[in-house]
Amino acid sequence: MGVPLMDLSGQWRPLHARIQAAVAEVIESGVFILGPNVRALEEETAADLGVAHAVGVANGTDALILALRVHGVGAGDEVICPAYTFYATPESIAAVGATPVFADIDPATYQLDPDAVAACVTPRTRAIMAVHLFGHPAPMAALRVIADAHGLLLIEDAAQAYGASLDGVRCGAIGDIATFSFFPTKNLGGFGDGGLVTTPDGDVAERIRELRFHGSKDKRTFTQVGMNSRLDELQAAILRVLLPELPGWNEARRAVAARYLELGIDRFVEPPATAPGAEPIYHLYMARCRDRDAVQAALKAAEVGAVVYYDTPHHLQPVFADLGYAPGSLPETERAARECIALPMYPTLAADQQAAVVGALEASLAPIA
Question: Would the pTM of this model clear 0.70, i.e. be above it?
């Protein structure tokens, strides 16, 4: 591949010796589950995000399920969420027995449209699950007004947004509870699965710690039906090496996004927008195309990595067919699913590689009128 979509090994290569030392220390200790590295990572991420409590869990999907369960969301409840997102968002809602209610998105930022959310509220609504999609913050102030007006829980699905902020507040410290994923491709990604739940409430944090450990504090007394969802010590040790590097990596991604504009990429595709007050981290550089097939063909011919995400939005997925959504019911969601494509984006993406991306578009496409 001339220019890959992502380059994880290039990002991690300078840290190999430190990562290997951290892994070796865990192996030598013989402590692999809920040990000192997990506790330290929880403290470090809480401080970094500006939130009172952080709880490490096995993956981002479990984090969402735990966030719902700890607040008693379940059968008979509705949770409003986007349909243009990774499947774990609505899957977690269905997994606790609740019903996902899909709201349309803003066409510029791909985040939940507050007006669409407000129209979805019913007497059964218990929560709004906002997704900071592609590393751009959701419109949390407007969603908070809706949540407060109806007594709803406001959940942040921040799986793609570690380090993003809105009006100076970090994603993960804005809502009532938030979740993160440490999947390897995330901006802060480990060497396997991992997740995090953040909350300002100490009682909620303690109950999540019990839920992640079979509903127990001590493996002897079981107070609730929990699950086995523990961030393991090896992943925590690796993430502790990576965490201090993340601000620099995120700043490099912002520089890459700015350089795409300097190179004139907006002559051929619509680049991602930034809402007022938002500081995105460009987990993905999602461009909108007038003719996505032509863009894909041009990039493939030039050996440039590009991927279509979420091309069948969840309100039209077979698993949710019984909810009764018809094609056309979420027009902006469906348009984004037809038109958007992820272009190369990573901290070590070089200027000449970006020029090759734009050059491939220029050689094959007419400029946008």
Answer: yes
The H or E element that residue 22 is part of is: helix 16-29
Would you give per-residue pLDDT tens digits along the chain (369 residues)?
Answer: 699 999 999 999 999 999 999 999 999 999 999 999 999 999 999 999 999 999 999 999 999 999 999 999 999 999 999 999 999 999 999 999 999 999 999 999 999 999 999 999 999 999 999 999 999 999 999 999 999 999 999 999 999 999 999 999 999 999 999 999 999 999 999 999 999 999 999 999 999 999 999 999 888 999 999 999 999 999 999 999 999 999 999 999 999 999 999 999 999 999 999 999 999 999 999 999 989 999 999 999 999 999 999 999 999 999 999 999 999 999 999 999 999 999 999 999 999 999 999 999 998 877 876
Per DSSP, what are the bridge partners of residue 278? 166
- Shortest CA distance to 10 belongs to which of 234, 249, 183, 236? 249
Look at the domain 246-364 and name its fold: Aspartate Aminotransferase, domain 1 (3.90.1150)
Place of tokens 């912002």: 254
The answer to whether residues 136 and 161 touch, using CB atoms and an 8 Å cutoff, is yes
Residue type (1 letter), 366 = A
Q: Are strands 153-157 and 125-131 parallel, antiparallel or unpaired?
A: parallel
Q: How far apart are CA 162 and CA 164, in angstroms?
A: 6
- The domain ranges of the chain are 8-244, 246-364
| CATH classification code of 8-244 | 3.40.640.10
- SS3 readout for 52-112: CEEEEECCHHHHHHHHHHHCCCCCCCEEEEECCCCCHHHHHHHHCCCEEEEECECCCCCCE
Determine the Cα–Cα distance for residues 195 and 222; give it in Å rounded to an integer. Answer: 23
Q: Classify residue 293 by burial, with Cβ atoms within 10 Å: 0-12, 13-18, 19+.
A: exposed
End-to-end CA distance of the chain: 31
Cα separation, 85 vs 83, whole angstroms: 6
